[in-house]
Amino acid sequence: MSDQQAFPENPSDYADPENAEHLTSEGKGLALPGQNLPDKVYVIPIHNRPFFPAQVLPVIVNEEPWAETLELVSKSDHHALALFFMDTPPEDPRHFDTSALPLYGTLVKVHHASRENGKLQFVAQGLTRVRIRTWLKHHRPPYLVEVEYPHQPSEPTDEVKAYGMALINAIKELLPLNPLYSEELKNYLNRFSPNDPSPLTDFAAALTSATGSELQEVLDCVPMLKRMEKVLPMLRKEVEVARLQKEISAEVNRKIGEHQREFFLKEQLKVIQQELGPDQGRPQCRPRTVRAAAGGQGLATAGAKTRRRRNEQTVDPRNRFAGVRGHPQLPGMGHRSTVGCLWRGQTRPQTRTQSARQAPCRAR
User: Fold this and answer.
1) Which of 230, 298, 318, 337 makes the best surface tag, with the fewest CB within 10 Å?
2) Rg (Cα) of the chain, in Å, rounded?
3) Cα separations (Å) of 65 from 83, 89, 101, 357?
4) 3-class SS string, 101-152
5) Residue of 16 and 282 predicted with greater confidence
6) Torsion over CA of 230, 234, 236 and 237, rounded to 10 degrees?
7) Are the CB atoms for 24 and 32 separated by under 8 Å?
8) How far apart are CA 242 and CA 245, in angstroms?
């Protein structure tokens, strides 16, 4: 096998892959109706996910021990091999238990095989499901088997068409939620229809993030209606997971935005303080600083005078003389003089005798 082989372009332009019953005799074209599928093919096990008939994807394998297998495939007329999924890869790929392979695999056509850094890469065009009938060579690679192909009814029932419409709607609902799906994939979806349910169902299963064993159950399920009943819940679950993932991403982005805004505001405040200087942008005086500057004593004396003045203004009139009795007398002044000083400018209170003298006058 050469480092770069020329194979046909546009590997996605093929007819119904599940019902593709023929290959070109020259081995230079795509799978087209009119010629028989090979009954003997080489086998390569894969370990990540099963390969479905509706897929056209690159496949990478180790150069050792699969270089000889791809060399033989490139020399065959049909350029096809079978890919079988193995959940647990063997320690030595040159020796593995043939009974560990599942019931069904996928017949693929090899395009654009190349070798680089100890790896072999080729584009695999899924054609149809395949089942091993007899092992012709299984001691070491290349593995050669005799295979058979399942058959599907040509006309789908109304129930199958209804499931097909449900699958298409679920896929269209999933595409906007997952940014990994590009516009090209959306255009590729337009090629499927409920009248061709087999590739549609396999394509829907391949879009999900289900485990390899769950996808292998779909690949092993040949009856169309039963297979669609398996795939539709898987696709609905994928839609819910994608919607939840989108909500979580939006919440995380909102929190990150708030933290970034707070960080930028703090940094801007630091820059402003640095531009104004060390003493700018701060209060010039604080209460403790003011008290210390005033000596402390002056403020305390002023506060005491204010409180004394406020207390004098709130003295009860009935006890107005209480403070006078206890007031120290000034030198040279008697009690009457002191009272007169306090009541200067005000009307003196009348004594009892004066009130009695004025009483008859009032009666008259």
Assistant:
1) 318
2) 49
3) 15, 14, 18, 141
4) CCCEEEEEEEEEEEEECCEEEEEEEEEEEEEEEEEEECCCCCEEEEEECCCC
5) 282
6) 140
7) yes
8) 5
The answer to whether the bond into 142 is cis (omega within 30° of 0) is: yes
Burial 321-342 (b: 16+ CB within 10 A, else e): eeeeeeeeeeeeeeeeebeeee
Check residue 4 and give its pLDDT: 39
Q: Is the pLDDT of residue 330 over 80?
A: no
- CB of 217 closer than 8 Å to CB of 223: no
Pairing of strands 119-137, 56-62: antiparallel
> Model-level pTM?
0.61
Of the candidates 104, 124, 106, 108, the one whose C-alpha atom is nearest the C-alpha of residue 217 is 104
CA–CA separation, 175 vs 199, rounded Å? 18
φ, ψ for residue 289, nearest 5 deg: -65, -40
- Coil, strand or helix: which one is 360? helix
pLDDT digits over 42-65, tens only? 999 998 899 999 888 999 999 988
User: In terms of pLDDT, which residue wins out, 4 or 52?
Assistant: 52
Dist CA 29 CA 8 (whole Å): 6
* Residue 85: its H or E element: strand 80-85
Q: Give residue 216's pLDDT.
A: 95
